[in-house]
Design a protein that fits this description.
Order of helices and strands: HEEEEEHEHEHEHEHEHEHEHHEH
Number of helices: 11
Structural class: alpha/beta
Shape: globular
CATH architecture of the largest domain: Alpha-Beta Barrel
CATH superfamily of the largest domain: Dihydropteroate synthase-like
Bound molecules: 6-hydroxymethylpterin-diphosphate
Distance between the termini: 57 Å
Strand content: 15-25%
CATH class of the largest domain: Alpha Beta
CATH topology of the largest domain: TIM Barrel
Radius of gyration: 20 Å
C-alpha cells in the first residue's frame, strides 16, 4: 500500500486541481475591478472555477489565486517581432504532396511563393511552412525529403519578403535547424518536443519562439479512439507539463506559444469542448494559437465534405476564438478570416474602446 500523503502535500495537490477560466468580455463598459486579459483586447471580472471531477462555479476575479492571476493578466511578449496585443493571422503554406486540404498545390517554389504573396496580401502576419502532413493517418516523412521540400522555399521567401516572420511546422530538429538557418524564426512542433529529443536544444540555442501543440498519439493512429478523463483539463495539464520540459531545456516561457491541437487525437466533441472554453489556456501564461482551419469537425457540423468548402465554418471558429482572447489563428483562408475579424472587431470593439 502506498503511504498516505502528508497533509500539506494533500492540500497542495487539491489546490493544483482547481482551475480558473476567465470569462472574457469586450468593450468599454466595464466594472472597476475588470482585469485586462494577457495585455490584449479582452477583460474579465469573473472566472469559472473548475474542480477536476467536481463541477464548476462562477467566482469574482478577487477570488483567483495570485499566481493564476499573474499568468492571466501579464502582457504577452512579442513573438518573432510580432506584438500580441491584437489577434494575428498565421497563413498556412503546406509544401507537401498530401496535406488534407492543399496537398500538392504548392510543392514547387514558384507556386509556394505565389501562395505566400497572396497570404501576405490578404493580411497574414506570419507564415507557417510545413513539409510533412500530420493529417489523421499520415505516415512519417524521412528527414531528407522534408528538408528538400522546406528549405528552398524558406530561402526564396526570405529573399522575397524579408520582413515576414516565418514559422517552420516540423517535429524534427534537423528540419528546424535548417529552416532557422534559412531565415525562419518560429518553430511549430505538433509533438510539443515529444518526437525528436534534439529539438529542445535547437530551439533553446537559437533563442527563437516555439509553439507547443497538444496531440494525443501519433498522426497515423491518433483518431482511432481518442479518450480523455476531462479533455479541457487533460490538455491544459499536458501543455503545462510540456512548458516545464521546454523551460528546463532553456526556452523561456515568454517565447512559448501554446496550442490545444484541434483534431490531433480528438473527436468532434473534444474539439468543441476545447474551443468552447479555450480561455482556460491563458492560465498557462503564454500566447495561444488555434489551428482549426478546414478541419474535419467543421465539415461534419457544417455539412461541407470537401476541405476547401469549409472556409465559412473555419471563420466562425476564428471569431469564437478571438472573442476569448486567442492571439494567433493558423488559417488557410487568410483574406476571408481577416475580413470577418475586421467586421467583428468594428462591432465588438469600436475605435477607442480598448
Ligand atoms: N494543424 C496541422 C498542422 N500543423 N500546427 C499547429 N500549431 N496547430 C495545428 O492545429 C496544426 C499544425 C494540420 O493541418 P494542415 O497543415 O492544414 O494539414 P496537414 O497536416 O495535412 O499538412
Amino acid at each position: 500500500m502506498r503511504p498516505a500523503l502528508p497533509s500539506h502535500d494533500q492540500a497542495a495537490k487539491t489546490r493544483a486541481m482547481i482551475y480558473y477560466r476567465p470569462i472574457v468580455q469586450l468593450g468599454a463598459l466595464r466594472p472597476d475591478d475588470a482585469m485586462v486579459l494577457a495585455g490584449g483586447w479582452g477583460w474579465f471580472s469573473t472566472a469559472e472555477r473548475i474542480a477536476r471531477g467536481g463541477g464548476s462555479d462562477l467566482v469574482p476575479a478577487s477570488a483567483i489565486p495570485a499566481e493564476w492571476l499573474a499568468r492571466l493578466t501579464s502582457p504577452r511578449a512579442s513573438i518573432a517581432g510580432i506584438a500580441l496585443d491584437r489577434h494575428r493571422l498565421m497563413g498556412i503554406l503546406n509544401v507537401t504532396p498530401d496535406s488534407f486540404s492543399d496537398g500538392g498545390r504548392f510543392t514547387d517554389t514558384a507556386a509556394a511563393l505565389a501562395q505566400a504573396r497572396a497570404a501576405r496580401q490578404g493580411g497574414a502576419d506570419l507564415l507557417d511552412i510545413g513539409g510533412e502532413s500530420t493529417r489523421p493517418g499520415a505516415v512519417e516523412v524521412a528527414i531528407a525529403e522534408e528538408l528538400r521540400r522546406t528549405a528552398p522555399v524558406i530561402v526564396a521567401l526570405r529573399a522575397d519578403m524579408p520582413g515576414m516572420p516565418i514559422s517552420i511546422d516540423t517535429r524534427k530538429a534537423g528540419v528546424a535547424q535548417a529552416a532557422l538557418e534559412a531565415g525562419a524564426s518560429i518553430v511549430n512542433d505538433v509533438s510539443a518536443l515529444g518526437f525528436d529529443p534534439a529539438m529542445a536544444a535547437v530551439v533553446a540555442k537559437a533563442g527563437v519562439a516555439l509553439c507547443l501543440m497538444h496531440a494525443q498519439g501519433a498522426p497515423d493512429t491518433m483518431q482511432a479512439d481518442p479518450r480523455y478523463g476531462d479533455v479541457l483539463l487533460d490538455v491544459f495539464d499536458a501543455l503545462a507539463a510540456r512548458i516545464a520540459v521546454a523551460e528546463a531545456a532553456g526556452i523561456a516561457r515568454a517565447r512559448i506559444v501554446v496550442d490545444p491541437g484541434i483534431g490531433f487525437g480528438k473527436t468532434t466533441a473534444h474539439n468543441l469542448a476545447l474551443i468552447r472554453r479555450i480561455s482556460l489556456f491563458h492560465g498557462l501564461g503564454c500566447a495561444i494559437l488555434i489551428g482549426a482551419s478546414r478541419k474535419g469537425f467543421i465539415g461534419v457540423i457544417g455539412g461541407a465534405e470537401a476541405p476547401d468548402a469549409r472556409m465559412p465554418g473555419s471563420v466562425a471558429v476564428a471569431l469564437a476564438a478571438v472573442a476569448q482572447g486567442v492571439q494567433i489563428l493558423r488559417v488557410h483562408d487568410v483574406d476571408e478570416t481577416r475580413q470577418a475579424l475586421a467586421l467583428w472587431q468594428a462591432i465588438a470593439q469600436p475605435e477607442g474602446t480598448r
